[in-house]
Amino acid sequence: MKPETFKAAIFRGQGDVDVVDLPYPACGDDEVIVRNLMTGVCGSDIAAYRRGGDLNMVWKDHEFGHEAVSEVVEIGKDVTGLALGDHVFPNQGYALRDRRRMATVGGFSEYIKVLQCEVGYSVLKIDNDIPVKTAVLMEPFVIGTRGARNLNPGPDKTAIVFGAGIIGMSAAIMLDWFGCAKVMVVDISEKRLANARSFGLLTCNPETEDLQARAFAEFGTQQAYLGERCNADLYFDAIGLPVAIDNFTMLAGREATLGITGAHHEAVPLNLRHLSLMNWRITGCGSIPIQEAFVDILAMMRSGKYDVSSLVTHEYPVEQIADALVMGGNATEAQKVCIAF
């Protein structure tokens, strides 16, 4: 039986969110209605709550949230490839046919109406037997997978990831999945590092350990123009802070590659003479289509090799969306915060 109304979280502005009742939508011939099961709180949601939403396309007076795993509850007569009960990912700017709605899909609402629904475009199917608490991590794993693949990983490579938040962990897990011989995660949160170790990853807390000595011991060293250097091949910046660049330039040997996925908000100095002498490569966060990343992520999730659901550390009902946004920004306590319906 269809409800008359549903709960929806509305972004009102900096430090201000609201939960309201909206009318349950009608389903058109080329549309589907999905019921959200769980939605991740993204860094962009947290930034919008802290500082205002325009820079992250979290628009005032809109429903928001975009990291949902959802269940199909209504299907228009012209839609093919879906069955009632299928689990799907409403695909950000495509689900509402508006790229400006990337972050205001409605993941923090109970229901979403997907317009002109096309499987593989506006919704991406997720195996129903993948646990919801695992499937909800699809979107951050897309970011980590793009960045990891952009580094050209493989069995002959080793990697160091700066940051054990959800993006750093997704990248580290995918680097391991892609066959890297060793992956080390660097962070100052012991809670996050303990979780990283549960995945078989190496860890280092630079507040309590000498990062250079630890990296030299784990990855070996090489003699280079700038002296003794770490022999790790790949580096991944998931924190967007100058310390990540400083640590890369301290450690990296010749031919090392740095991928930058963390969002740097200020200019960071870099000695280009060192870059030239060491032949470093610096790349961005990757650009493979989300559908292509899904293939790798689904294969990883189906394998059962990693219990990625353990990355979800906090769950809140939608009525506590403000509390969820605050906890999402607590790097010492939270790894991934979700709204559970």
Features:
341 residues, alpha/beta, Quinone Oxidoreductase, Chain A, domain 1, Rossmann fold, 2 domains, seven-stranded mixed beta sheet, six-stranded parallel beta sheet, 11 helices, 18 strands, 29% helix
Give an overview in words.
The chain is α/β, with parallel strands linked by helices. The protein folds into two domains: 5-128 and 309-340, Alpha-Beta Complex (Quinone Oxidoreductase, Chain A, domain 1), CATH 3.90.180; 140-283, Rossmann fold (3-Layer(aba) Sandwich). It has eleven helices and 18 strands. The chain has helices at residues 43-51, 92-95, 132-135, 138-150, 166-177, 190-198, 211-219, 242-251, 272-278, 290-303, 321-328; strands at residues 5-13, 16-23, 32-40, 62-63, 67-75, 87-90, 111-114, 123-126, 158-162, 182-186, 202-204, 221-224, 227-230, 234-237, 257-260, 281-283, 312-316, 336-340. Strands 3, 5, 6, 7, 8, 17 and 18 form a seven-stranded mixed beta sheet that branches. A six-stranded parallel beta sheet has the order 11-10-9-14-15-16, sandwiched between helices. β15, α9 and β16 form a beta-alpha-beta unit. The radius of gyration is 21 Å and the shape is elongated. The two termini are 18 Å apart.
Beta-strand content estimate? 25-35%
CATH topology of the largest domain, by name, is Quinone Oxidoreductase, Chain A, domain 1
Task: Return the CATH architecture of the largest domain.
Answer: Alpha-Beta Complex
Overall CATH class of the largest domain:
Alpha Beta
User: What separation lies between the terminal Cα atoms?
Assistant: 18 Å
**Number of separate helices:** 11
The SSE string, one letter per element, is EEEHEEEHEEHHEHEHEHEEEHEHEHEHE
Helical content, roughly? 25-40%
Largest sheet: 7 strands, mixed
Uncertain runs with pLDDT below 50, 5 residues or more? Answer: none
Gross morphology is elongated
Structural class label: alpha/beta
Secondary structure: number of strands? 18
**Count of domain modules:** 2
